[in-house]
Amino acid sequence: MTVFELVLRSMRQNVKHYYLYFFALIFSMSLYFVFASLQHDQAVQNMTHTSFAFFQIAGVMLIVIVAIFTVSANGIFLRRRSREIGLYRLIGLSKGWVVRYLMIENILLGFGALLAAIICGALVSRLFVLILLNLLGLEGIVGISFSVPAAFKTAMVYLLIIVITSIQIMLTVYRNTLLNLFQADKRPDLTKPPKAVTSAIFALLGLALIGYGYKLSGHVDKELFPNALLMLGSIVTGTYLLFHVTIRWCLYRFRKRKDGHLGLTNSLSMAPLMHHTKANANSLALITVLSALTITLISMAYSFYYSVEHETRRDLPYDFMFENDQQEALSFKMELEKEGINVHHHVVQAVLTVGIILDPNDESYKVEESLLWLPAEQLKQTGADLNVPPDGEAILYDAGASLAGDLDEQSKRYPTEIALEQHEQTVMYTLRTLRERNIMNLNALGSQLLVSEATMDNIAEQMADTPDYKKIHFDTYQVSDKEELAIASSIYEKYDNDERLKYDYYAQYKKVLELTGLLIFIAAFLGLVFLISTGSILYFKQMTEAEQEKQSFKTLRQLGFDVDMIMKGIIRKQTIVFLLPLSIGMLHSIFAIKAASFMIRSDTTFPASIVMVIYTVIYFVFALFTIGYYRNIVKNAMT
């Protein structure tokens, strides 16, 4: 029998061990092919008008994820087949022959995954394009096409993976002795208890570091870079200690409290965890941290996308606005009416001055700024939901207030005073509070202050002779039928050559929707690749442990225990194995989202909850696969 025939026979016999690895590899490389196809698809680029640097970055991240997954899974398989490798060596086959045999098998497996990935990617690429266009709110006909450059890039990724795994195979074969190969699949037991004092100190230190990181999450926006690094470092270090020391120490304390009498269920769940905690600590800690990172990134991307309409309306309360240009405003209105578009037109007279908003916490603050005084009575006629302030008082409206810092900290500045200088005399007005939205479109010059019409007239009379005083005439438009906004926006583009006045609600909404749609598209699919990869690694590790525990199941059968009694303890074990990194990762992500929430002015609770539910469901599927595999092992061991 030739080496090639032996490889094919081995692959047929081991297909039950390979199928999930094969599927995950195909899935990951298919997504890479799709991303590469989108990057080179000219039609999609023309429809989105967006820089596809996002896809290039996503492609690199996909390569990294696929490489890490492949190396991890290949390491598990090599450890499981260590006895087989040892037997080849024992019967006199050279190390070079064994390496050649394993490399041929690896190349065939990878080549099969490559072909399947390219075929699947080509078939589903149109579906992904339609999903992307739907996220971007675009319409277009996308034909099925095959991207040769994308296939070439995917093949290069395959070659990279083959090179890495081949080096891994060579190191495994050449570095290990026969004794190591025959004992490689045996996990070290917890032969001695952890040192009580030292373990307790490091166990508490791990929890303290995580708690400190959680505390910092509420102050990241104050000193972004140092606090973010400190928070990340403390949580990652704390997670490492948690899995390496804290959990092991807690399990030992649990066994000590039971005085070694764990019972069947605990023996099948807690005892294997105690024995394997040290060996699995690195992978579980890594999965926990990366789970937190993935959930955070997807939640933030979804939060941005989910709040686009609301955030755009905060910035641009009116669909269209003209400033001191009555002639073009009238022409725009006539053109809308000519197209049969029903529009509500209102005029708002405002006053622009220069003044100082005093800071009661800093008496030295004397920075002048442009102030736009807007009459509440006229704004109410446009349909704005607001109350008229008392005479002599103002309310500051700023949609970007939260981006400048903590709103609670900013609110401590109010009420305060506004100082206007007129002929060497200072006139004071009360600034009552701050509201996080605009009452005029964001391209209007000056800080937006809501006042009564009587107060604005008084300011106009007092400041009329000052050099920075200016009367502002706003023409505001609201389109009744939102489906006609696209036509109205295309008409508006012909007006206002001044770039500062080129804002309109629909154009800004589509621009931000396109950006956030790309972000959530990329984040979601990267998250799926990571989920499939990490879930598969956990599954492979549990497969290995199940094979190691076969003899224990046979012994339990001889003692009179049935399958259901044994599976009760195994289910508890798998619940802990899958739930522990998932729950801790979710807890990390909650505080990470809290730290990053200052970048999003809307509530992130709903988007984050959706992401966590989906993430949990996918992990639950892998847990079911693992339990099913264990059940088959137990049944076979008892026959």
What does this entry show, briefly?
Helix content is 67%, strand content 10%. By secondary structure, the chain is α+β, with helices and mostly antiparallel strands. The protein folds into 3 domains: 1-185, no CATH class; 187-203 and 225-236 and 265-316 and 505-638, no CATH class; 320-502, no CATH class.
Report what the structure shows:
The chain is α+β, with helices and mostly antiparallel strands. The protein folds into three domains: 1-185, no CATH class; 187-203 and 225-236 and 265-316 and 505-638, no CATH class; 320-502, no CATH class. It has 21 helices and eight strands. The chain has helices spanning 3-13, 15-40, 42-48, 53-80, 82-90, 95-136, 148-175, 178-183, 196-216, 224-257, 263-306, 308-315, 326-338, 376-381, 407-411, 453-463, 485-492, 505-548, 550-558, 563-596, 605-638; strands spanning 320-323, 343-357, 369-375, 393-397, 416-422, 425-435, 447-451, 470-479. Strands 2-3-7-4-6-5 form a six-stranded mixed beta barrel. Strand 5 (416-422) and strand 6 form a beta hairpin. Helix 2 (15-40) runs antiparallel to helix 18, helix 11 (263-306) runs parallel beside helix 20 (563-596) and helix 20 (563-596) runs antiparallel to helix 21 (605-638). Mean pLDDT is 79; it is low at 187-191. It is a multi-pass membrane protein. Residues 57-174 form the ABC3 transporter permease C-terminal domain. It is found in: Cell membrane. The chain crosses the membrane at residues 18-38, 53-78, 107-135, 155-175, 196-216, 228-251, 284-305, 518-540, 576-600, 606-630. This is Cell division protein FtsX.
